[in-house]
Design goal:
Strand order of the largest sheet: 2-4-5-7-6
Largest sheet: 5 strands, mixed
Strand content: 15-25%
CATH superfamily of the largest domain: Histidine kinase-like ATPase, C-terminal domain
Distance between the termini: 45 Å
Radius of gyration: 18 Å
Structural class: alpha+beta
Number of helices: 5
CATH class of the largest domain: Alpha Beta
Length: 221
């Protein structure tokens, strides 16, 4: 029964991807042509991106369950990847009183990892932060600490309910009723497949609320 369910999710995710890609491509072309911007067009683009991310998460979850998640490592600059993703995410929230700030501690941060999978982790963490931050900023930092790379995503939201912490990275566990509960689960599995760690905590700074998600990756040797 479980196998049938996984097969259905896999097929459904693939079917979702087929119409999403041309919608995204054409919406992007229209946004480039309409310089003044369109609220309706932005809504189409933003929700198409959400569907694309959902299909990717479903595919990843089924691969994790079947032990078929592949990791193809190559050397790339993690700071460049983070910057590109933030630029895309910032564009999607530009009409909200919210901004994403990236503060890398070094100009370059080479890493040996699966760029696509690590990108998926960063997107999921940023989307999670955006979901729980109505206004203010999301701070992303990256640095080299001894023999590992550390990336943090700190939001200005209400923080994490202490009761959620034990299951936060479990499959289908969600901080929001509207969430799928797949994003953080996938983040954990991808990071662990790279030999890294991931955890979350609430901010302890005076007068500062929000959640802080931290993941590590082995440094390039």
């Amino acid at each position: 029964m479980k196998r049938r369910g996984d097969e259905f999710l896999n097929v459904a995710a693939h079917e979702l991807r087929t119409p999403i890609l041309p919608i995204l491509a054409n919406a992007e072309l229209l946004r480039d042509k309409i310089k003044t911007g369109s609220r309706e067009l932005d809504t189409i683009f933003r929700n198409a991106v959400r569907l694309q991310q959902l299909s990717e998460n479903i595919l990843s979850a089924t691969k994790i369950d079947s032990n078929s998640l592949t990791i193809q490592k190559e050397e790339f600059d993690l700071n460049t990847l983070i910057g590109q993703i933030i630029e895309d995410e910032q564009h999607a929230i530009e009409k909200r009183n919210l901004r994403i700030v990236f503060v890398p501690q070094t100009s370059n941060l080479p890493v040996l990892a699966d760029e696509s999978r690590i990108g998926q982790v960063i997107v999921n963490l940023l989307d999670n932060a955006i979901k729980f931050t109505q206004e203010g900023q999301i701070l992303v930092t990256s640095e080299m600490m001894k023999e590992e790379i550390v990336v943090r995503v700190h939001d200005d939201g209400p923080g994490i309910d202490p009761q959620i912490f034990p299951v936060l990275f479990s499959k289908f566990a969600s901080r929001s009723p509207s969430g799928t509960g797949l994003g953080l689960f996938i983040c954990k599995k991808i990071i662990e497949a790279h030999g890294g760690t991931i955890h979350a905590r609430n901010s302890s700074a005076p007068g500062k609320s929000g959640a802080i998600f931290t993941f590590t990756l082995p440094a390039l040797r």
